[in-house]
Amino acid sequence: MLLDAKGLHKRFGGVQAVKGVDIGVETGELVGLFGPNGAGKTTLFNMIAGTLAPDAGAIGLAGRDVTALPAWRRARLGIGRSFQVTRPFRDLTVVENVLAAVPRDGARRRHDEEAARALLARVGLAARADEPAGRLTLGMLKRLEVARALALEPVLLLLDEPLAGLTGREAADLLAFVATLRSEAGIVMVEHNVRLSLPACDRAIVMDAGAVIASGKPEEIRADPQVIRAYLGEEAA
After folding, report:
1. Segments of the chain with pLDDT less than 70
2. Among 21, 69, 132, 134, whose CB has the most other CB atoms within 10 angstroms?
3. pLDDT of 127-140, one tens digit each?
4. pLDDT score for 236
């Protein structure tokens, strides 16, 4: 298994943000992570990426225990992520933003402009490569976030609400592109746009109050009474 996380717990003061969560992802699989605000999705993401240390539990990547490794070490091992709030270097050009994401050393990655421009072409930003990132629209910035994550040549791609704030067409186009990335990496995607994103997933995990309340194929999730009560509501109609 590519990602094998077991028994993850995280507490912030008196709040148990994540309670004994298990999550596994295979190479070539797109897993959707859903739940209401405060369900613990972002905390779980941050523990997998290495920006938060779990209070208990273990995280394995391709058979290697990475629980104690910092985020930069995990990135070099192949965990790439995007952020819900885009974080470009606004005064750098778009292509410079992609280059900034890539370590200059490391056999798996190429720190060169040609590779960066090729990535931008894949996400539809080739024409904007030499413009300051601060000029991009939100939809373009979301694509830049994905390009920067892909610059690490990840084996595991973590996408934090990539569709948030996009128009219907922008969201559908970006989701279609994300779905093509299955051939390169296992993908975990946090999303609130259930109606659009759930059908694109191979499997879905639903969290509520820090715990997993359901896991399965999209059709199983949509029919699960506990999920409908806790989260989907009218989305399940």
Report:
1. 103-111, 230-237
2. 21
3. 999 999 999 999 89
4. 41
Q: What is the dihedral of CA 169, 184, 192, 148, to 10 degrees?
A: -80
Which of 90-101 are b and which e, b meaning 16 or more Cβ less than 10 Å from the residue's Cβ? eeebbbbbbbeb
Tokens standing for residue 152: 């690490």
pLDDT, position 232: 58
CA dist., res. 96 & res. 89, Å (int): 9
C-alpha to C-alpha distance for 102 and 35, rounded to whole angstroms = 32
Residues 62 and 101: beta-carbon distance below 8 Å: no
State the pLDDT at residue 107: 37
Tell me what pLDDT residue 223 has: 87
24, 5 contact by CB (below 8 A)? yes
